[in-house]
Structures are given as C-alpha cells and as structure tokens.
Amino acid sequence: MYLLGALELLSAVGLLIPRTRILASGVLTFILIGAVGSHLIYAQYAAVPFPAVLLIANIGVLLVSLRQLEEEESLEMVQA
C-alpha cells in the first residue's frame, strides 16, 4: 500500500509537469484500473464511481498529451 501511495503522489506531481505528464498519466491509468477492478471483485460497488471517473479523466489527459506531443513532433519535422 505504501508503494501504491507513493506512486500515486509522484504521478500526481508528474501530471503538473509537462515533460513527465505522459508517463505519470500512464502510471495512474494502471493504478486506477486496479482500483476499479479491486472494488468490483470485492463487490464494493458504491466505491466504484470515484476511481472510474478519475480513470476516465486520466485517459482524457493521456490522449490530449499524446496528441500535443504528436503535433509538436510534426511541427519539428516541417521546420527541419
């Protein structure tokens, strides 16, 4: 649990830094998938919505960050 907590905190800080946003979002995606799965396996259905909403928001951040990276790379290729 301490390792997961530390990873969550580091990933939360990583989301604030543009350079590490994609990695942090990827790590959080796996953690949140595990949280949703754990709640479903142990029939804690009332606890599922919170990590599920965070998972969806996190996937959105990941997709936007990947799209921005793709645009930056295409601009660099055009300028070169």
Automatic annotation (TrEMBL):
First-listed, main subcellular location of the protein, grouped into a coarse class: membrane
Residue spans crossing the bilayer: 21-42, 48-66
Keyword Nucleotide-binding: no
The UniProt record lists the keyword Transmembrane: yes
UniProt-annotated location(s): Membrane
Pfam families: DoxX_2
Membrane topology: Multi-pass membrane protein
Alphabetically ordered keywords of this record: Membrane, Transmembrane, Transmembrane helix
Top-level division of the source organism's lineage: Bacteria
Record-linked InterPro entries: DoxX
Listed name of the protein: DoxX family protein
Species, as recorded: Paenibacillus silvae
Lineage of origin: Bacteria, Bacillati, Bacillota, Bacilli, Bacillales
